């Protein structure tokens, strides 16, 4: 069970809030804390005297499934007193959701950097690798999230897909994308007013493969994957487009989606500093297709 700590309240400790909220009695809550059955976002037991941090989550340990560790590290590209920029590997979720709790970028960074209040300013698909922005101070998170909401962050992605010499590039792709809750794949609605826009450019080609620069001007779910598929160029390793494949074992890390968040560029809303970050990761299908296609 997941419990979010309210943003308003006068509780001193997590324990005090849970005693009042769960109505299980202080002796039950104290016992669960002593036995390590209540954990934080980092997967570690919540201490009996852990301070109350508004907006964070705790879980009942007995309800958490065992998670398969993602065998790739997350690199910190930049850190100051306001933000952390990290380079996320494939297969690592951004933040706790569903069966992914401790094996997430947010949980790892909170644990490794010792910043329990660290928050994500935006999301990156679990299957997509690359740059992400996190905020250090909860009171400043809204300012950074607004950058993304108002499209004041320049994002550049890289992808590997088939090469079609007859396809005229560069081009801008616009369409109306719908992503329904509970449905894995998003879809386009022909003739509807566009709500998504992506710029697609050919960086270089090598035989039947090519490397593409993708610049999204909107942020719809799966937007780049949908637009590449619509061009007849589904991104290598995509388990959803053009067809949803069957589930894979949680320890199967083969053939990662060849999509990378390469560049993040923005003016810091708190300090006024102009930032430009570039991922150092490489897409495996481009550097060694045989190793990727195992």
Structural notes for this entry:
The chain has 294 residues and is α+β, with helices and mostly antiparallel strands. Helix content is 18%, strand content 27%. A hairpin with a 2-residue loop joins strand 12 (196-206) and strand 13 (209-216). The chain is globular, with a radius of gyration of 21 Å.
Task: From the structure above, extract its key features.
alpha+beta, 7 helices, 294 residues, ten-stranded mixed beta sheet
- Determine the N-to-C terminus distance: 38 Å
Question: Describe the biggest sheet?
Answer: 10 strands, mixed
Strand residues, percent = 25-35%
Broad shape? globular
Helix fraction by DSSP (H/I, runs of at least 4):
10-25%
Q: What order do the helices and strands follow?
A: EHHEEEEHEEHEEEEEEHEEHH
Whole-angstrom Rg: 21 Å
- Unreliable stretches (pLDDT < 50, length at least 5) are none
- Beta-strand segment tally: 15
The SS-based structural class is alpha+beta
